[in-house]
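Hey, sorry to bother you again with one of my protein questions. A protein chain has come my way and I'm curious about its shape. It would help a lot if you went through both lines with me. I owe you a coffee for this, so here goes:
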Amino acid sequence: MAGKGLVLVTGGAGYVGSHTIIELLNSNYSVVAIDNLVNCYAEKNQKPESLKRVEKITGKQIVFYNVDIRDKLALEKVFKTHKIDFVIHFAALKAVGESVQIPLMYYQNNIAGSSTLFQVMSDFSVKKLVFSSSATVYGTPQYLPITEEHITGQGCTNPYGKTKYFVEEILKDVCTSDKEWQVILLRYFNPVGAHESGLIGENPSGIPNNLMPYISQVAVGRRDCLKIFGDDYETPDGTGVRDYIHITDLASGHLKALHKFKDPSFVGWKAYNLGTGKGCSVLEMVKAFEKASGRKIKYEIVERRDGDVAASYADPSLANIELDWVAHKSIHDMCADTWNWQVNNPKGFEQS
């Protein structure tokens, strides 16, 4: 087919998926997106709002199906209809705190759903996969910054992290059993920010589980107060330290991963950290957002959240070297672009 190939994007209407589709379309890939709409906004019988806006940004069309990755027959229909070259697999439930409360839902969706997807891929001989993994697979860090050689699976502090670890292990076993598979595991640190157009951004359903949308909703008056989970960690200011990465930088990492498949020496699987390599505390992020938005952020300190670790930040040098990927955008860029998205979309995608 024309262009660089057809990419199936699971969870394509979500935060990371939608931003990655922009990068794919702008780089001359064709895209088929699937999503079960569990964490995105769509009007009845219409394409998700995030993907409508991606089409507006890029001037290109996206084929979309409302499909749950646990539905084998629906997946098979997509694979029969389209000659897919690559799969980027985002579809997952992803809230750390929620995963502690309803673990079975996370195991069923993230592990059983992924296994179903991989089986259908195998049946249709589509064996090039970029998997959206997470730094949570490292559990409580044994050293900082975290390299890809850090042990995974031991000390995972929440079911969400365990599901990412288990899916990584499934994929390693698949690669061992079938040498035709090429799998890249992208271990994200903390994606934040929004597309510079302000047309798409993070749009969580209900109360945000992640820091940045919570801060921005407080700034825009949608929520009264930011809850900071703990100020007694062994960090410089007592609040949790994370490696925040701009969503556009993260999205570009998926293009670099697809390029890696062209390397004739690449077989099996390989994991890469996607982060900036710099830690930023919750309070530092609050101050940066206040500067970018010109708004005061009211906050209160509450008890620690189950499953959180004190500090986590990446050593991204392997991705820098082997994928030719670098995170360019600053904390200020992350805050400014989030504010631009939020102030132009105070209720997110649902404007009514």
Notes: The first helix runs from residue 15 to 26. The mean pLDDT is 95. Residues 171 and 339 are 38 Å apart (CA to CA). The radius of gyration is 19 Å.
